[in-house]
Structure formats: C-alpha cells, structure tokens
Amino acid sequence: MSNEEMRKMKSGSQERKEARQFTEEEIVQIQKERDSLDSLYYLGRMINCIEGVNIILKKRYDFYEKYEVPLQEFVLWGKYLLTYRGTMQEIYQCKYFGSPAKITTIKDFMMNVNSFRRRELNAFPPRGCFCAKCHAPITMDDVIKGNYIFVYNEFTHKEHNKK
Ligand SMILES: [Zn+2]
After folding, report:
1. Strand pairing partners for 150?
2. Cβ contact 102:126 at 8 Å
3. Ligand 1 center to residue 145 CA distance, Å?
C-alpha cells in the first residue's frame, strides 16, 4: 500500500469518526441507556432466568448497533463474556482462583484468573428451549454449567454427545 493510500485510509477513518456526532439530548439519552446496561445491579437481577439473559443480550446488542458507543464488559458465571459491542462470547480453558462469581466486571474477572480464551458463541438458548434429543428443557442450570450445544440448528444437552 502506498503512502498516499495509507493517508487516504487514515483520513477516511477519521471522517467516519467525526461523522458520529451526537446532540446534547442524544448524549443524555445514551448515557441513561448505557448506565442501566452497564449496571451490575440491573444485569445481576436480569440473569436469574434464561429469558432475562436474552433480554439483556438484545438490549446491549441494539444499543451498540444504534450508537456504536462501547459498553462495559462483564463475565457471567465465569463462562460467558458480555462484550463491549453487545455480543456474547464463550470463555474456555479458564484457570480460575477460587470459584467464579455470578457476574463480575471483566477487570475483576481478570484479577481472578491465570489465563483464559474466548470465542464467539454460536447461539444462546431462547426461553422455553427444549433439548432435541431428550426433549427436556434446557434449564438455567444447564446454561450456567455450559451443559448444552448448538448443532444443526438445534440445542441439545452436552451429555448426549459424549462418547
Ligand atoms: Zn437432552
């Protein structure tokens, strides 16, 4: 890539950034929405059921899509990462000190782990989700333990796939 192209690219990204200007009213509105979506108290109350987790996922996703303003990152049950752009990632190969908290900020989480890896979660069970193999519901307990997989567009308990 030539210097000229580099320069153009840089100014291009600058323009995009500058195009994203908010009015004072918008800033107040964004702040208000972000305060609740970034509140440990609010999130902690919402994640008691599968439906609640789905609601906060949608709200955080919609928020980032709309404003492109980064959110705070949180870790749920040491297993799921709520990303700054409103998506959810799976945490794996995690070396924990003690036992994971129900919900914690990414900063506190990182102070309690040696190392961890993260990857995109391909699907999170919706409310009233049933296992395609045994037809029992995928429960909150399954979610917390990560005892489910999503393959061929279906949710099943992990144990059916153990050989
Ligand atoms: Zn099952």
Report:
1. 155
2. no
3. 14
- For residue 49, what are the domain limits? 3-121
Look up residue 6 and give its amino acid: M
pLDDT digits (tens, 9 = 90+) for 6-62: 555 555 555 455 557 899 999 999 999 999 999 999 999 999 999 999 999 999 999
In this structure, the answer to whether residues 147 and 82 fall within a common structural domain is no
- How far apart are the C-alpha atoms of 16 and 63, rounded to whole Å? 19
- Whole-Å CA distances, 36 to 7, 58, 100: 39, 14, 23
Residue 32: other Cβ atoms inside 10 A: 10
Those residues whose C-beta lies under 8 Å from the C-beta of residue 66, and which sit 6 or more positions away, are none
Cα 132 to middle of ligand 1, angstroms? 7
Let me know whether 70 and 116 are in one domain: yes
